[in-house]
Structure formats: C-alpha cells, structure tokens
Amino acid sequence: MLDEVSTQKGVAALRTDVKISEEGLLTDDFVRQLINVGEVDILVGLPTYNNAKTVGPVVAAIQSGILQWFPRDRAAIINADAGSRDGTPEMVVGASIDDVRRRDFNRLALRTLHSISMQYGSTVARGTALRTVLAAGELLQAKATAIISPDSTNIKADWLRDLLKPICTDNFDLVLPTYARHKFEGILVTNLLYPMTRALYGLRIREPYASEFAFSSRLGSQFLAQNQWNDDGAGEGSEVRLTLAAITGGLRIGQSFLGAKNHTDRHAADLVPALRQTVGVLFWSMDSNFSLWSSKTGSQPIPTTGAEQEFTHDPRRVNRKRLHEMFRSGVAELASVFQSILSPATLGELQQIAGLAEEDFYYSAELWVRTVYEFAVAHHKAVISRDHIVQALAPLFRGRAFTFLMENRNSSADEVEANVESLCLEFERLKPYLLEMWSGKK
Amino acid sequence: MREMIVSELTQAVQELARGFARFLPRLIVLVIIAFAGWVIAYLLKILARSILRLIRFDRLSDNAGASQLLAKAALPPSSELVSLFVFWVAWLGFILLGISVLGIFGLQEHIARFFLFLPRLFAALLIMFLGLLAASFFSRAALLAAVNGNLPSPRLLSNSIRGIIIVFALSMVFEELGIAQETVLVAFGIAFGAIMLGLAIAFGTGGKELAQHFLESRLRHRHEEEKNEDELSPL
After folding, report:
1. Pair A159, A258: CB distance under 8 Å
2. pLDDT digits (tens, 9 = 90+) for A223-242
3. C-alpha gyration radius of chain B
4. Of the candidates A341, A389, A396, A342, which has an alpha carbon nearest to the alpha carbon of residue A368?
5. Taking the domains of chain A in order of start, what are their residue ranges?
6. pLDDT one-digit tens code per residue, B206-228
7. How far is CA B223 from the centre of its chain?
8. Which of A209, A316, A317 sits opposite B235 (nearest CB)?
9. 8 A C-beta contact, residue A227 and residue A234
10. Where residue A18 falls among pLDDT bands split at 50, 70, 90?
11. Are A266 and B232 contacting, i.e. CB atoms less than 8 angstroms apart?
12. Per-domain residue ranges for chain B?
C-alpha cells in the first residue's frame, strides 16, 4: 500500500517534470515506460551499439550486482541504444533476472528490476547516450547512477558495489574506476590526460576518461542543466566533461579499483577521435576554468578504494617502427602547421629529434610537456582551427609513445609507475611556463 | 571700330566672368565635398580598422594564407589594407560626386558606372578572401588527415586541394567582375576537363601496369598493416 502511494506521487511529479525537461530527447514511449517504473534508488545506464556478442554477460553481471549488493533498493537498467541491428536492445530488455536469482542466490529479490531501452539515434553518439541516461535518472529521481560499458566482458557483480556504494553511503558525487591494465595500455591517459588533469586541477584522478563510472543525482542534475548540449561537439568527450564538471563544481570525487578490464573493440579507440574526446575537451575546459586551474599548485590524492593503479606485463604486439616513422613524417610534413602552434625553440628541438635513428631517438618528458602546453595555449588563442590543433598533436604523441615504450620495455610495474609519476611532476613543475604562455608574457 | 572691339572684349570678359562666377561655386562645392569626403573616409577607415581588429581579421587572414601573400608582396597587414581600401573607395566616391556637380558633359555616365561597379568589386574581393580561407582550411584538413592516415605524399594532396579551390575562386571572381567571362569559363572547363582526362588516361591506360602494381602493393600493404596492427588502445 505504501509502495503504491509513493509510486502515485512519483508518477505525478514525473509528469510535471517530463513537460519541462528533455522533451525533444526522450520519446513518448520511453517516457511512458519511465512513468510506469515510478521512482528508483539506483539506475544503471548501458549505452550500446551492436553489442549482442557481449551484452548478455554484462546485463547478467549488472543484475547479479543489484541482487547481491542492493536487494532492498529500487533499481532500473536504462539501455540507450544507437540503432543496433543485431538485437542488442531486445537482449537487454529480455534478460530475465529470475535466471540470475536461481543461479546465483536461490532466493527472491525484494524489488522488481526494470529494464528499458530507447533508441536515441541511428549513429553512435556517446554524449547523447549519456544525456538520455541523465534525463531518465532525473525523471526517475535516482539517487545514484552507474554507467557500464557493454564491452566490459570481464565485468563482475562487485563493480556495482565498488562504483555505487561510495555514492549511496559516503556521499560521493563521482566515483571513477582504476583498473589493472597492461603497462602499455592507455598511453594517452598515462602520458597526457592523467598528468595534465592532475597538474591543472590539482587532483590525482587516474582515469578522467572512464567507460565505467557512477555519479550522484546532484552531479547528474547539474551536468544535465549546465552542459550546452546543443553546441557543436558538446556531446563529444562527455565522460571527460562530467569529470571536469565534478572538479570545477567542487564536488566529492572518489576512485574504486575494479580489477582488470578487457577491451573487445580495441580499434574503436583510434588516436585522432581519442584525442578529440579527451585532450580536445581538456583544452576546451581551460578557457572557462582559468581562474580555478591557474590558482592550483601541486596535487592531492583523492579517496581511493583498492589499488590506485596496477600494471600487468603480458606480451602484446606493438608496431614501434610505425610509431617512429609516423612521428618523423608528421614533423616533416606538418612543419607549416607546427609553425603556427609551437615556439621556434620547441619546434627546432622536435625537428632535431625527428632526424635521429630509432635507437637514438628520445622524446624527453620536459620537451613533451612543453609541446603539450604550447598546444593548449595555441588552442586557447585559436591560432588555427581548434580541431586541426588537436589533430596535429597525433604524430607528436606517437613520438612520445615510442619513447615511453622504449623506456619501459623491460620495466617492472613499480618502475612504470615511477616513470608516470615523474612525468606528472614534470607537468606540475612546468605549469608556470604554461601560465606565462597563456598570459602572453612569453 | 574701336568701340566695337572694346565692346566685344568687354562682353567676352563679362561672359568669362559670368562663366567663372557660375563655375566657382561648383568648384567650391567640389572642394567642400572632397574635404568632407576626406573626413568621412578617414572616419570610415578608423571605424573599419576597429571593427577588423575586433573580429580579429588579421588572424582570419593568417588562417587564409592571405597574410603570407601580402608579406611576400611587401604590402601592409590585411586589416590595414582593407581599411585603406575603404578610405580610398569612400574618398574617391566623394570626389566623383563632387566632379558630377561640375556638370561636365559625358563624365556623369562614367561616374554612375563606377558606383554601379562598386558592389561587384566588393563581392569579388569577398569571394577571393573566402576562397583563400576555404583553400587554407581544406588543404590543412587534408594534410592532417593524410599524415594521420599514413597516406603517401600528403603535401602533394594538400597543395592540389589548395590549388583547385583557388582556381575555382579566381574563376568566380572574374565572373563577378565581368572580365573575359566566356574566356575564363571556357579556359576553366578545358583545364579541368584536361586534368581529369589526363589523370584517367594516365592511370587507366598509360600507367596500367603501374596502377596494377599500385593496387596490388596497396592491398598487400594493407594486409600486412592489419597483421602488424597494435593490440593496444590509446585510452
């Protein structure tokens, strides 16, 4: 009876909310289904596109996690689909929680777990997918929302606990993951995104661009309202935007170690789109948050459950020769573009190392940091098209990646971690150089 | 006889004086218009310069590659050049307006033509500037895409795109100005057709073996590339 009353109240509130928010985004059918759900405590967002091969175990793990760790909470799974043609949404909606109950717990859940799917478009747009989940979360008044990647083949039920518990019980607003990764996996994160975010905003966030994360209703509502979704490219890199919104909003951020993460679709993260989604967004954030980042010095750790980072060593195939060749040809072919972006001294040094043979090649941390900072300033001043500036960073990043691979070829996990830490300190040490360039003193 | 001469001379002098009296106010009006025009043109120049600085026209010009062209020709920066152009066009317009007051037969038609030509001149200049801007943007985009895609001869591709866009913009400029319209159109058509035909013949017939070799090596290269694909993701 009490449940019925609260559901009716919730539905009334929802109907009012639906009128005023996100009318263009959510379909009528989707809103109708949300109204039928009422209010929830926990929401799990699952953005998909042709993930039929992997989505089954992922949904089972999510259901298992909810049953195991949140049996008394009202929960729902929202699938934001980009128009899959392999039956992914049907698999998500049709996955029966009873199988999980019988297999894993042999008991009945106290609540009904709803699974709803909505097709938000016909092409993949991660920003729109996140916005759909955010809007649904707001309408359902979810206290905590987790986003889970559909290609996380080794997801465990514990991930739900690790991501959502800090929000539900410790009042965190954003919980980001840390993973056990191969030492050469995510070089863009270890060599640019993590150290630069840390140097700028003073927080040691290991994965500013996460495919699994959780956030509070407060952050969700703020982000949904503040983010200019209609601007060109506003949806791009929405994960990094959310992290930056939490940082700049002074909200509580935590990290949880999730263990190993498998990437089934490695080629989805090509370098140029990856740069746009991460570095492009980070550079973009520097314009509007100058007063915040310019006043920060040094960096602080953030509360972390479990290990902050783990590196694994299993053998991987990497085409180092191609990285070196692409750096060399990039520096030679893009000289006219770099003249607009880089200082003569930095460009001169890059041209000098581009002439070195593979065995002598070394792209030092100091030169790399100066390069990145000069790119950030060029992006701020829009010396050429901002998208072209981000694209021009790709060949230089390949050079730095080559050096990182060579430096850490035989390194242990601790040595790799020490090298990453040393690079982070270099980013922090050279921050005054960035500020001088930014203000035009250099 | 003497009286007649004096009378004629007096009449001639009087006519000259009358003519001069008729002409002098017009000349004064011309001078006033020219002076007022100079002041207005100068103000317009300052206004144009301020607006151009406000919209960062020099940066746009840098992006378009126009600044480099101007520097090579030892000309002032583009914002200065445009504001000078505004000044001279405005002042010249006022001077011509003043001259039309003089009422010199046959000149007014030319002056009217000049004023009718001005909008086309402005449109042509705008087309040229936008053409340079587009050429610079797309050639750079092609260069970056080719370098990041590891394609052969990225600069050749980029320069070709720049050249095609500039030629296209120039043909539009000539058409707008009405200079040798038919000649430009025919020349453009012949040149474009010749390039395309030449490429088709060179690639399809003349370079049959080369094309075969290129395609084979390209496919093999791609196959080998796929085999050498990294197992790592940057993120």
Report:
1. yes
2. 988 766 655 444 678 899 99
3. 31
4. A396
5. 2-312, 320-438
6. 666 666 766 666 666 555 555 55
7. 48
8. A209
9. yes
10. very low
11. yes
12. 1-104
Specify the pairing of strand A174-182 against strand A310-312. Answer: parallel
Given a cut of 90, is residue A95 above it in pLDDT? Answer: no
Q: Which of B137, B146, B233 sits opposite A266 (nearest CB)?
A: B233
Query: Mean per-residue pLDDT for A377-382?
Result: 92
Residue type, A421: E
CA atoms within 13 A on the CB side of A178: 20
Query: Measured between CB atoms, does B221 come within 8 Å of chain A?
Result: no
Q: Are A100 and A115 in contact (CB under 8 A)?
A: no
CATH number of A2-312: 3.90.550.10
Dist. CA B168–CA B154, nearest whole Å: 21
Sign of the CA dihedral running A285, A291, A297, A298: negative
Encode burial over A333-365: b for 16+ CB neighbours within 10 A, e otherwise: bbeebbebbbbeebbebbeebbeeeeeebebeb
**Which pTM value belongs to this model?**
0.81
- Separation of alpha carbons B101 and A31, rounded Å: 74
Residues of A with CB under 8 A from a CB of B: 182, 184-189, 209, 263, 266-267, 269, 271-272, 274, 277-278, 316-319, 322, 326, 329-330, 333-334, 337, 340, 382-385, 388, 391-392, 394-395, 397, 401
**How many CB atoms sit inside 10 A of residue A56's CB?**
16
Banded model confidence at residue A429, pLDDT cuts 50, 70, 90 = very high
Give yes or no for a contact between A188 and A397, defined as CB atoms under 8 angstroms apart: yes
pLDDT score at B73: 67
| SS (HEC) of chain B | CHHHHHHHHHHHHHHHHHHHHHHHHHHHHHHHHHHHHHHHHHHHHHHHHHHHHHCCHHHHHHHHCHHHHHHHCCCCCHHHHHHHHHHHHHHHHHHHHHHHHHCCCCHHHHHHHHHHHHHHHHHHHHHHHHHHHHHHHHHHHHHHHHHHCCCCCHHHHHHHHHHHHHHHHHHHHHHHHCCCHHHHHHHHHHHHHHHHHHHHHHHHHHCHHHHHHHHHHHHHHHHHHHHCCCCCCCC
Nearest-CA neighbor of A200 among A279, A286, A281, A280? A286
Q: What's the ipTM?
A: 0.84
Per DSSP, the three-state class of A216 is strand
Cβ–Cβ gap A388/B140 under 8 Å: yes
Torsion angle defined by CA atoms of residues A141, A70, A260 and A250, in that order, rounded to the nearest 10 degrees: 40
The alpha-carbon gap from A31 to the nearest alpha carbon of chain B, in Å, equals: 34
